[in-house]
Design a protein that fits this description.
This protein is of the alpha+beta class. It is built from seven helices and 21 strands. Strands 2, 3, 4, 12, 13, 14, 15, 16, 17, 18, 19 and 20 form a twelve-stranded mixed beta sheet that branches. A seven-stranded mixed beta sheet has the order 5-6-7-8-9-10-11, with helices on both faces.
């Protein structure tokens, strides 16, 4: 056999190997996508009722702690391209210590922290596909590897949220403006927070969209860094939690029930008094908020992101909720450029009852029928390929 023939044979083997590998991978992805469950989505119910849920009702009896979440990579692709990943949780006043370990499991990076009693807090960022869909899993008991890497429709995103929510205390959608449509935010459930790395209008619009459809979701600000620089116009984000005690359980409870506020602070702000929330009260139908120092501007925002009222140059402001106001959230601006984001006050039938919508219902009949149909089609397709190969071999 000549050298050229040997080279040709090896080339055929290599081509067949890679071609076969791509075929197997492609077949796996097709089957994986086709086997995704189907859901029936109920229509969302807006916040309504004569009572109000105020997440800050009993904050005077709690301790205030500051939490910063700093990220320098969003997902596995960033790690491969940039060669590093760091998720650093800073909990001031010694509630959560430095990371105990970093584990790589099922293509995800799981971080472990501990409080003073030794109780562990695990969290990781889920999502490594090209769709940009990301979720932050807080208090995870298991790392979920499942993801739909190329395209995600409503049923795929709900399936991911269901899988993650079963094994995490809290789930946050990361920068939903990048990858979640208005229709998806209307129906999706199984998450409690929106993690936002920038406070531009489109990010806040996603939050208002979820709230406007009656989803009890709270804002969690994170710092995303690239090559050591904050990409959000040199703003540093932090979250101030009201907790009963210095423990991880208290941290989870605070985030779950909205007992916190977020602040965006310029890196180059002049030294002075740090903006701070004093109290948030409901007096009959009036929302009353006090801060320090005096704020330059207050913005009360309601259903569909509508600006309800603007007030300037005061440290105490109020807004009287109208019958049409399902919820009201507040943005407070200070002279040094800091912005406070107050979680919403929302209507509900009963005082102090925290209820979240679960609109997705697994359509087990349709899922079973479609999976059965796909199995039959795949078997027929495989049989056609097999017959074609036999026919080809006989001709040779």
């Amino acid at each position: 056999m000549s050298q050229s023939q040997t080279m040709f044979s090896w080339t055929k083997i290599v081509y067949r190997f890679f071609g076969g590998s791509l075929l197997i991978l492609g077949s796996f992805l097709v089957i994986f996508y086709l086997s995704a469950p189907f859901y029936h989505f109920q229509e969302p119910q807006l916040f309504e009722g004569s009572a109000f849920y105020n997440p800050y009702a009993d904050t005077n009896a709690k301790i205030e702690r500051e939490v910063q979440i700093n990220l320098n990579a969003l997902h596995l692709a960033d790690v491969i391209l940039n060669g590093k990943l760091r998720i650093n949780l800073k909990y001031y006043d010694s509630l959560v210590y430095a990371p105990l370990s970093l584990d790589i499991s099922n293509f995800q990076f799981s971080h472990r922290f501990a409080d003073s009693s030794g109780k562990l807090l695990n969290f990781y960022r889920h999502g490594y596909g090209f769709t940009g869909d990301q979720q932050l899993c807080i208090g995870s008991r298991k790392v979920i590897w499942t993801d739909y890497p190329f395209v995600q429709h409503l049923r795929h995103k709900q399936d991911i949220l269901d899988k993650i929510d079963r094994h995490c205390d809290l789930v946050a959608l990361t920068d939903p403006a990048r990858s979640y449509t208005q229709e998806e935010l209307k129906y999706l459930s199984g998450y409690q927070l929106m993690e936002v790395t920038n406070t531009r209008e489109e990010s806040m619009s996603s939050w208002d969209m979820a709230l406007s459809y009656g989803h009890r979701v709270y804002l969690l600000l994170s710092n995303l860094e690239t090559e050591g620089e904050n990409i959000n116009q040199k703003m540093v984000h932090s979250n101030h939690l009201f907790v009963k005690e210095n423990s991880i359980d208290a941290l989870i409870e605070s985030l779950d029930n909205g007992h916190f506020y977020s602040i965006s602070h310029p890196l180059e702000a002049p030294f002075g008094r740090v903006a701070k929330l004093q109290y948030v009260s409901m007096i009959n139908d009036s929302l009353v908020i006090a801060v320090e120092p005096q704020a330059q501007k207050w913005r009360f925002i309601g259903q569909n992101g509508l600006l309800l009222q603007t007030i300037e140059n005061t440290d105490i402001a109020s807004y009287t909720l109208q019958p049409s106001d399902a919820y009201v959230r507040t943005e407070i601006f200070f002279a040094d450029g800091s912005i406070l984001y107050i979680n919403p006050i929302n209507r509900q039938p009963i005082h102090d009852e925290v209820i979240r919508q679960d609109l997705a219902r697994l359509d087990s009949v349709k899922t079973a029928w479609m999976r059965g149909l796909y199995v039959v089609l795949i078997m027929l397709f495989t049989q056609l390929i097999f017959r074609w190969q036999i026919h080809r071999m006989r001709k040779q």
